[in-house]
């Protein structure tokens, strides 16, 4: 099969390296001698999948076990899919070119609701029955994890078992059980029995042992367990200590240029800023930092093992890392001479200090991105984005002085309580930053490039497990009006205005807060040709609407339904550690325009994670407020 | 210290584009701790210059690049370390020191030798094959269409074909060997020669053409020299 693909198919497709799997540090194992064969399935193209740190962690974690094998497969681009079909070939893993249905386990990562259609497509191309109920003992077990697994219901009909939470420990526990199960049965899987065994692993959700009943209005009446051992709620898994957690220091180095083409160093996990729209901020609590010594050691190994010329300090908010300045300084001092740069992907304007700006002087200058998220202080308080206009201006001034000339600002549109005044605020902020840039440029003697500002605006999508989970999405027509209104306010060649497709945000909202009934809609949409929905050239809005309606569901109900605090939510049985009562309280405070502090600066907010779970805030540089006053 | 490296792209490496290749070498040098010299500035680049870029899909056993080292270093050690740190698809054959003032590879390389394996839809014998070749080569012009920045343009490639031979290997399998012009003076692509033969009546299965670059050369009165031999 490999020869046929390499000789006949790859020469015809765009970027054949997407399907080759011969990269530096790739793991190749003897197919016949391992105990368990698994494939990591990323439901988007190679360049996106290989930029994802989670894939790299799980891939190397599993392959570090001599007796397990994990290969990779990505969504084939449409040209490749056509070639596979034309030649009657199945979707295969890129390491050993084995069809997906020859693996024991196919493991998907759920990063984004709009990649769900690709999951169905990949299973089908890999000759694995798409419906979980139609899989037999000779089919692989299909498992899934990642942020969208926290509301698993829209995929419950297609995934045999979900893994909720951080994967470093639980993945191996799950694979061990499957391997032992196979060995006890002469290499055979007995699907029903295996799924029963998996219920016993904390953090594993097996949807077939749960049933959701609905009220006449479509809301959830009850979520019942159908097996005596199935836990009522599934609590997420988490790492207590990031210093001892597995981290890959010999990652694959792609030939092809991928989106994040650099060594990734994870400086911390979690974020307690408490932005009320942010799902990641609620899911990955508490904040756990890595020790600078561990990071330095990992950086050294990463550089030597990969040959990358850039290290990215990644996390939800890297400028919040309590040791960020000394770590950057030491890394730059050590590696600058070898031509190795440092990059910081996620910056907050309130923690981007002058000291950091000074360090950044030695960091590569591309554009600098900040996310005020809303245009006025009032609305920023509603969403609890504790960033002020003053913060933004200070940071922008520092950045312009240090030589940056492009500043990107991210905003959301359609936030709860938003009015035109808030939209005016977005345009005002952009102009103020530009005027400031011009002022700095004049002071520096009108040298260099003219300042530029880009505002990027995304439609707000309410997400499960956030304080805004009860809130309806702003109606599509209104969202589009808001876009037009904002567009009309921006009339300057040096201010670029980008906005996301509001129709895509609408479909995303349906699935983000979806229930199990949506599985049929997803299946129908996929059958009608939906795939690569996140790619504007492939997104078929009308087809999605048609599919949802065809199975008797109302798309508007899903996106616009107002949920009550007393309602049972479709994801009620998934326990993220943050209490529902806390989310309610945060929602109420939002409506009162009251802010909540970050437990790293101030008092514990009693969100529930450190109270109910065996984990605690872990800051290496002491309390944040003490360091950065 | 300036070095000239002869390397190859194997079957696994044939899909690596030139830009991907540059990055792959840069990373391999860093892993192998090759004491390569970097340009100054915010985005330092390793001082590496390549011969002629190889098209995607072709294998090669004769590619060249020049590299500049920060200081003198034993060549055998560099070669040994590089071999350990090269990704699948790339192979180092030889490294030689060159004069820092040597003419850049790009400016001296002017010939490329290709081996092309093709399958025919109808068998031919050696005599018939030779006749088709002769028929093509006796033409004064061989005009091909090329996509250029200025749109489709006609080009004559006859004067750029210096050697062309063909052998029937087995029934419908034919092997072509050709020496053609390459470099700044002009470029003849092996697939253009194959297409011209097809037009002359050779029934080539276009899906199974396999092109290999045997090497890059510098032509002189004495014949073809390799870029390594002129440095010795």
Could you describe the 3D structure shown?
The complex is a heterodimer of chains A (629) and B (232). In chain A, 35% of the residues lie in helices and 14% in strands. With 629 residues, chain A is α/β, with parallel strands linked by helices. In chain A, the strands form six sheets. A six-stranded mixed sheet of chain A has the order 2-1-3-4-5-6, covered by helices on one side. A four-stranded parallel sheet of chain A has the order 15-16-17-18. Chain A is globular. Chain A starts with a helix and ends with a helix. Mean pLDDT of chain A is 93; it is low at 624-629. Helix content of chain B is 22%, strand content 36%. Chain B has helices spanning 18-31, 75-85, 105-108, 126-137, 190-199; strands at residues 2-9, 48-50, 59-68, 90-98, 111-119, 143-148, 151-156, 161-170, 173-181, 210-220, 223-225. In chain B, the strands form two sheets. In chain B, strands 1, 2, 3, 4, 5, 8, 9, 10 and 11 form a nine-stranded mixed sheet that branches.
């Amino acid at each position: 099969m490999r020869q046929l693909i390499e000789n006949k198919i790859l020469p015809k497709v765009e970027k054949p390296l997407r399907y080759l799997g011969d990269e530096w540090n790739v793991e190749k194992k003897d197919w016949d001698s391992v105990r368990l064969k698994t494939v990591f399935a990323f439901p988007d193209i190679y360049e996106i999948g290989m930029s994802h740190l989670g894939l790299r962690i799980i891939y190397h974690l599993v392959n570090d076990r001599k007796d397990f094998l994990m290969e990779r497969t990505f969504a084939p681009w449409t040209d490749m899919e056509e070639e596979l079909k034309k030649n009657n070939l199945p979707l295969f893993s890129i390491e050993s070119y084995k069809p997906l249905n020859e693996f024991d386990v196919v493991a998907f990562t759920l990063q984004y609701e709009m990649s769900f259609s690709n999951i169905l497509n990949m299973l089908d191309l890999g000759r694995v029955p798409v419906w979980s109920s139609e899989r037999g003992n000779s089919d692989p077990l299909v498992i899934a994890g990642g942020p969208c697994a926290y509301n698993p219901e829209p995929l419950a009909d297609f995934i045999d078992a979900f893994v909720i939470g951080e994967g470093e420990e639980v993945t191996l526990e799950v694979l061990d059980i499957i391997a032992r199960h196979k060995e006890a049965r002469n290499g055979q899987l007995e699907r029903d029995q295996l799924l029963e065994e998996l219920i016993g692993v904390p953090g594993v959700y097996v949807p077939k042992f749960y049933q959701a009943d609905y009220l006449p209005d479509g809301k959830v009446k009850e979520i019942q367990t159908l097996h005596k051992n199935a836990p009522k709620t599934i609590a997420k898994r988490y790492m207590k200590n990031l210093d001892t957690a597995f981290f890959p220091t010999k990652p694959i180095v792609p030939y092809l240029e991928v989106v994040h083409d650099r060594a990734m160093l994870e400086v911390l996990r979690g974020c307690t800023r408490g932005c009320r729209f942010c799902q990641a901020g609620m899911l990955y609590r508490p904040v756990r930092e890595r020790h600078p010594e561990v990071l330095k050691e990992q950086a050294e190994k990463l550089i030597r093992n990969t040959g990358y010329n850039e290290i990215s300090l990644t996390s939800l908010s890297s400028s919040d890392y309590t040791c960020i300045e000394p770590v950057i300084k030491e890394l730059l001092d050590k590696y600058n001479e070898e031509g190795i740069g440092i990059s910081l992907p996620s910056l907050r304007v309130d923690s981007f200090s002058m000291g950091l700006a000074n360090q950044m002087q030695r960091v590569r200058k591309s554009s600098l991105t900040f996310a005020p998220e809303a245009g006025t202080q009032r609305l920023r308080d509603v969403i609890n984005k504790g960033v002020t206009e003053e913060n933004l201006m200070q940071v922008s001034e520092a950045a312009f002085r240090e030589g940056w000339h492009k500043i990107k600002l991210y905003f959301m549109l359609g936030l709860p309580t938003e009015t035109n005044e808030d939209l005016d605020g977005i345009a005002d902020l952009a102009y103020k930053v530009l005027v400031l840039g011009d002022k700095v440029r004049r002071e520096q003697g009108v040298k260099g490039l003219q300042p530029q500002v880009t505002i990027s605006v995304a439609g707000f999508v309410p997400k499960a497990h956030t304080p805004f989970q009860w809130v309806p999405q702003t109606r599509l027509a209104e969202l589009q009006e808001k876009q037009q209104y904002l567009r009309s306010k921006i009339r300057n060649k040096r201010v670029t205005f980008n906005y996301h497709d509001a129709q895509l945000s609408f479909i995303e909202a349906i699935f983000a807060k979806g229930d199990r009934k949506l599985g049929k809609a997803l299946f129908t949409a996929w059958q009608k040709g939906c795939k690569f929905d996140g790619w504007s050239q492939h997104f078929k809005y009308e087809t999605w609407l048609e599919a949802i309606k065809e199975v008797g569901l109302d798309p508007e109900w899903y996106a616009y339904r107002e949920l009550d605090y007393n309602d049972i939510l479709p994801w009620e049985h998934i326990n993220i550690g943050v209490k529902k009562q806390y989310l309610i309280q945060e929602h109420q405070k939002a409506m009162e325009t009251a802010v909540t502090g970050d437990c790293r600066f101030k008092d514990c907010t009693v969100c529930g994670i450190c109270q109910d779970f065996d984990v605690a805030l872990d800051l290496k540089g002491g309390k944040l407020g003490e360091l950065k006053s | 210290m300036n070095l000239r490296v002869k390397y190859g792209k194997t079957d696994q490496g044939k899909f690596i584009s030139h830009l991907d290749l540059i990055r792959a070498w840069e990373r391999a040098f860093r892993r192998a701790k090759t004491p390569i010299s970097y340009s100054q500035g915010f985005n330092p680049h390793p001082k590496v210059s390549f011969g002629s870029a190889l098209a995607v899909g072709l294998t090669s056993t004769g590619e060249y690049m020049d590299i500049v080292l920060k200081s003198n270093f034993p060549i055998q050690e560099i070669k040994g370390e590089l071999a350990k740190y090269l990704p699948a698809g790339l192979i180092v054959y030889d490294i030689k020191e060159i004069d820092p003032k040597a003419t850049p590879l790009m400016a001296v390389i002017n010939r490329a030798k290709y081996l092309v394996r093709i399958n025919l839809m109808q068998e031919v014998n050696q005599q018939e094959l030779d006749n088709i070749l002769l028929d093509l080569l006796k033409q004064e012009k061989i005009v091909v269409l090329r996509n250029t920045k200025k749109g489709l343009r006609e080009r004559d490639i006859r004067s750029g074909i210096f050697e062309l031979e063909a052998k029937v290997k087995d029934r419908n399998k034919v092997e072509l060997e050709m020496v053609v012009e390459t470099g700044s003076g002009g470029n003849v692509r092996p697939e253009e020669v194959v297409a011209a033969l097809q037009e002359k009546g050779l029934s080539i299965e276009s899906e199974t053409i396999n092109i290999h670059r045997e090497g890059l050369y510098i032509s002189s009165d004495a014949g073809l020299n390799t870029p390594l031999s002129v440095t010795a």
